[in-house]
Specification:
The protein is of the alpha/beta class and 313 residues long. It has one domain (3-289). 51% of the residues lie in helices and 16% in strands. It contains 12 helices and 9 strands. It has a 7-stranded mixed sheet, sandwiched between helices. A two-stranded antiparallel ribbon has the order 6-7. α3 crosses α4 (72-91) and α10 (182-193) runs parallel beside α11. The longest helix has 29 residues, at 3-31. The chain is globular. The two termini are 40 Å apart.
């Protein structure tokens, strides 16, 4: 057997083993009380800090870029806190992906602005729910799907087996997941024309050709144009959503906000700047719970006389 053949045979085995380990960890964390799960998550965050991990370095770079008004000590403290919150994001996933509907609903202890969502749906033009990587955004999507039909855009992972696990977890309360391709976009358009909710992550960097640069915390950020295009084609109403973790495992607070008026402008530059301004405002409400470990500024504008430079190298 050649080396290449042996490697091709071992890939499915490694994939199956990783999937088994992931399922096992999800079951373990799903069985834990939320407070204990979050405590373990803080431990993971401490480890990411103490080992000078790539997550820590990315968070440091992002926070220095986006929040220069903070002192070095304040920035350092925020990096620690956001790594703790990132750890909670990992350990709470078992409960979010495997918890019963009654448990998910019971953990959503505070709901603010739900009338904004209801009014948008009553208008009959469809609603676009924009939930950035802040707090327990996965739980916010699940909760919303228990209240109204929802179609969610997602980027497929590299492992097909992981995709099946992820989709089953996210769709178990009625949401429909569609991939970020032309078929998925068509499904979003149809859902909006039925007057339903579609959900999109507004701060996820799009593929080349699917975005434009717009300011985010004063920095050029490659921003998805799909949201603006959908709004212009359907007249849908945009809503911002944030799911905040409460202290000591007390649950979660869900917030729905009306989108900035500038998002409805036909000029894409104005609309994208307004979108990022709305996300920025939500982040500033609880900056520690934003995923500063995400490489939001990986793609930078190309200067005609300079090489492409990413801040994370």
């Amino acid at each position: 057997m050649s080396k290449r053949t042996a490697q091709s045979h071992s890939r499915p085995l490694r994939s199956a083993l990783r999937l088994f380990l992931l399922r096992s960890l999800l079951r373990v964390f799903a069985a834990l009380p939320l407070r204990l799960s979050h405590t373990i998550g803080i431990g993971f965050g401490w480890l990411a800090w103490a080992t000078h991990s790539a997550m820590r370095k990315t968070a440091e770079e992002n926070i220095q870029r986006c929040l220069p008004e903070l002192s070095p000590d304040e920035q350092r403290q925020l990096v620690r806190e956001t790594l703790h919150e990132t750890g909670k994001t990992i350990t709470e996933l078992g409960m979010i992906w495997q918890g019963s509907k009654s448990r998910i609903e019971s953990l959503a202890t505070r709901i603010e602005g739900q009338e904004i969502l209801e009014q948008a749906l009553a208008a009959g033009r469809g609603a676009i729910l924009l939930a950035p990587h802040s707090g327990a955004w996965e739980l916010g999507g699940l909760y919303t799907a228990t209240r109204t039909p929802m179609t969610t855009l997602y980027r497929p992972p590299r492992e097909p087996a992981f995709e099946e696990l992820m989709n089953r977890a996210r769709e178990r309360f009625g949401a429909q997941l569609v991939p970020a391709n032309r078929h998925g976009v068509k499904a979003l358009l149809l859902a909006l024309r039925r007057g339903e909710v579609v959900a999109i992550l507004p701060d996820q960097e799009p593929s080349v050709g699917e975005g434009e640069f717009a300011p985010f915390f004063g920095q050029p950020a490659y921003t998805v144009t799909l949201i603006h295009n959908l709004m212009q084609k359907t007249g849908a109403i945009a809503i911002l959503g944030r799911t905040e973790r409460l202290p000591r495992g007390q649950g979660y607070s869900l917030h729905y906000f009306a989108a900035p008026a500038g998002m409805y402008d036909p000029d894409p530059a104005i609309a994208l700047a307004a979108l990022n301004a709305g996300v920025e405002q939500m982040v500033r409400e609880n900056p520690a719970q934003y995923q500063w470990v995400y490489r939001r500024f990986r793609r930078q504008p190309v200067h005609p006389f300079k090489a492409q430079v990413t801040p994370y190298e």
